[in-house]
Amino acid sequence: MNANEVLNRYAEGQRNFRTEDLKNLNFANANLSGVDFTGANLTGSDLSSSDLSDTNLNWATLKGANLGGANLKGAKLPNGSIYNEFLGSANYLGN
């Protein structure tokens, strides 16, 4: 699945992208609020400045994903340890 397909499905109302292989895709500046990415592989994907509010990222693989400037207000982050060099500049308050 490519980024345009995900965004088109989102526009049509789909919010379930559990366990999808979405590595190395560009979602920069995208509105993905409320999406369920449980167990999805987002390795190396660009989610910078995207709206991920109320998104479920439990068990998602985020290694190397760019979350800089992303809105993570209300998001459920991965269980266990997370290593992501771009997580520090993410926005957890939605301001």
TrEMBL record:
Highest taxon listed in the record's lineage: Bacteria
Ranges that cross the membrane: none
Cited Pfam families: Pentapeptide
PANTHER family named in the record: BTB_POZ DOMAIN-CONTAINING PROTEIN KCTD9
Name assigned to this protein: Pentapeptide repeat protein
Organism listed in the record: Leptolyngbya boryana NIES-2135
